[in-house]
Amino acid sequence: MPSHNRTLAIITAALAAAVLYPSTAHAYVGPGAGFAVVGSLAVVFITFFLALGSLISWPFRALRRAIRSRHLRGPAEIRRAIVLGLDGLDPVLAKRFMDEGKLPNFKKLADEGSFKPLQTACPSMSPVAWSTFATGVDASRHNIFDFLGRDEKTYFPILSSTRISNPEKSIRLGKFTIPVGKPSIRLMRKSKTFWKVLDDCYVPCHVLRVPITFPPEKMKNGVILSAMCTPDLRGSQGSFTMFTTDSEKVGAYTGGTLLLVERDGDTVRGEIPGPPSPFKPQAGEMTVPFTATIDESSETVSFDFGGNELTLSAREYSEWLTIEFKAGLGVKVKGIVKLYVTQISPHFELYVTPINLDPGSPAMPISDPSMFSQYLAKLQGSYATLGLAEDTWALNERMIDESAFLEQTYAIHEEREKMFFNSLKKNRSGLTVVVFDSTDRIQHMFMRYMDPSNPSNRDKDTTEHARAIEELYVKMDGLLARVMEHVDDKTLLCVVSDHGFKQFKRGVNINTWALENGYMKAKGGEVGGSVAGGRAGAPASGAAESADGEARDFGGYCAGVSGSASVIGEYLRGVDWSQTKIYQLGLSGIYINKKGRESQGLVKSDEYKALKKEIVEKLQGLIDPETGEVAITSVYDTKEMMNGPYADGAPDLIIGYNVGYRASWDAAVGKSSEAVLEDNLKSWSGDHCIDYKLVPGVLFTNRKVVADRPGLIDMGPSILDLFGVKVPDFMMGKSIFRAREDS
User: Fold this and answer.
1) C-alpha angle 46-48-54 in degrees, rounded to nearest 5
2) Which of 134, 333, 385, 397 has the fewest CB atoms in 10 Å of its CB?
3) What is the DSSP secondary structure assignment for residue 594, as one 8-state letter?
């Protein structure tokens, strides 16, 4: 597939917007890849005058807020709320390390306040769970059921969180194609967040990197910085680039691009691929050339590219470097990358991170107010903006090793700490909520070290980083200690995680099971191939082209194992829909090929309920013949669990996998495998996309929790209640600090 087909609609749309609508927005033009209208010097002046105006008008605004807030709020029990989100922190591991005396600050918080398991969402994955945390409702009311959904007309996967579209019209200007009209970018999460309820009541809110906040909501009395689902500059959810002189490495890879380069003496030349040319689609991807000069005596490499000159030792990360892609018509597209020389000899190998949006000149809306991201960049330097910034696929594909991954992850963590503590100093009354991802990413990639029987340990180190997860929890304990310095008797402190963590040893493929049991048929004699080819010199990050010709890229969310032949290919290629009743796509769901809903639906309405019951009975309690263990503990009928206005968009059935099991890598992208159950051999060896009852998160708080079974769904309503703000009727959660009947 030609490389230019990988582009998302946002790239062309936004670059066109940069030309056609240069006066829109405050400091960026978008959505999509473009360039900032306001330069660095202008940002300084505008920030100064805004600050001056804010200072002069502060007494009047404060008086107005005080008057209006009296009518919007009742008596408040707190002046401030701090929510420290530690994605994936596990209650079992937290208790174990506390009992061993390794987490004194968590222990102190638990003793003085409360420590309880926190019920997660169903299904138990981050976009669903954090959306439930934010809105106080279940998935059928906030509309996020997985990382991926599906188009009922084409059966093609779609990103669940965001919809991005080009202007419908375009004009030709010589060799250029210029879209006419404004592009569109929409957040698909529905319902209202509890911080927007607070914002409407004049409670200042700082919301930092909470998942499913792209594009950012408009804030009247606070700031927000987007997180999960913020794409990279290439339009994917994170595509690394790897350069190598080793021709034996040519092959299929997931999550990035492998480029073969030649060494001429001490010199290596290459080109970093960027987004496609928006005005000349036939030209393919824009690139930035680089020259690397190798000094083997000092084991260093000097780089010259895009105005950057630097020298790196082997196994050393660069700082964030700004690169510009020339789009034509005077438009330049800016992004930031880090370089990492994995080795100098016998082969030169260079890893380049995904091209993050430049927070100092954001090409898409990543914050509100729009200049908040620029303010942070001026304050602390460039920082990662990609939704899934820690490059798990580079480690999965062994482009980098565990040490390099840990260094990258903790560097991003440090960036997050700086912006968080800045907000704690600036926002002394109101809500400050932040989510740290390092706890999730490190447990995903290092859980295998805690269980010698995990198949992911094969052919990998099992000793050097054996204490990586313990060290992670200890580091978070130190973070908590510094947060507690900002807490007084009028401050609510909550440490929450969206789910816990378990081993991921074996993958389950429902598409293969459906083929074997007559619920799915492949087209006669057709073998579905890999869509994300991953060949050397071409992208391999989960890209595929939909039936309507629009290229989409899901990056590292559910990227499959490329290159292996199967009856059903990635994204359900090769399915005979005229004889197929069920199919799997994503990490938790089974869809019925329902007549009148799917474009080639087979199952009639009067057969629908009976078929669901039949599938539940056959899959629930499924035994793994190799281990003798139950692989699937529960299969949930979503119509029986959820009755919100968006329930029709949910999978028809949600699979509750047992501990140690999960949807296989192939199944997640709609592909079949040779066997229903197979070993997981990736470094990604821990997971939480299992039966939600088996993987609760944690809740630590400095107040006594009255509720027996607090859940993520309760956190927003609980905070609103303490601020004296009426909990909206649409919210399903209840205050965990007041007596109530648990349901």
Assistant:
1) 100
2) 397
3) B
**The two structure tokens encoding residue 27:** 């400091």
**Contact, 211 vs 237, CB < 8 A?**
no
> In whole angstroms, what is the distance from residue 228 CA to residue 210 CA?
7
3-state secondary structure 394-452: HHHCCCCCHHHHHHHHHHHHHHHHHHHHHHHHHCCCEEEEEEECHHHHHHHHHHHHHCC
Residues 245 and 260: their CA atoms lie apart, in Å, by: 6
| Residue 713: its H or E element | helix 712-722
Range 428-449 average pLDDT: 98
Both structure tokens of 561: 């194992």
Cα Rg, the chain, nearest whole Å: 25
In this structure, the chain runs to a length of 743
H or E element at residue 70:
helix 40-72
Q: What is the pLDDT of residues 141-170, one digit of tens each?
A: 999 999 999 999 999 999 999 988 777 777
Amino acid at 2: P
Tokens found for residue 29: 């033009």
Q: Whose CA is closest to 561, among 670, 441, 402?
A: 670
Q: Please state, in angstroms and rounded to a whole number, the distance separating the CA atoms of residues 241 and 221.
A: 40
CA pair distance 226, 235, nearest whole angstrom: 16
Tokens of 645: 């206005």
**What residues contact residue 344 under an 8 Å CB cut-off, 6+ apart?**
294, 296, 299, 301, 314
Concatenating the DSSP letter of every residue in 474-531 gives HHHHHHHHHHHTT--TTEEEEEE-S---EEEEEEE-HHHHHHHTTS--BPTT--B--S
Cα dist. 300→266, 316, 341, 351 in Å? 11, 10, 9, 15
Contact 650, 643 (CB under 8 A): no
Q: Is 320 helix (H, G, I), strand (E, B) or coil?
A: coil
d(CA 643, CA 459): 47
Pairing of strands 367-368, 356-357: unpaired
Q: In this structure, is the dihedral angle defined by the CA atoms of residues 353, 356, 359 and 360, taken in order, positive or negative?
A: positive
Structure tokens at 501: 């963590």
DSSP 648: G
Query: Which of 722, 698, 711, 725 lies closest to 82 in space, CA to CA?
Result: 722
**pLDDT at residue number 49:** 65
The pLDDT tens digits for 512-561 are 999 999 999 999 754 443 333 332 333 333 334 443 334 344 444 444 43
- pLDDT (mean) for 72-98: 96
Tokens 């073998």, located at residue: 527
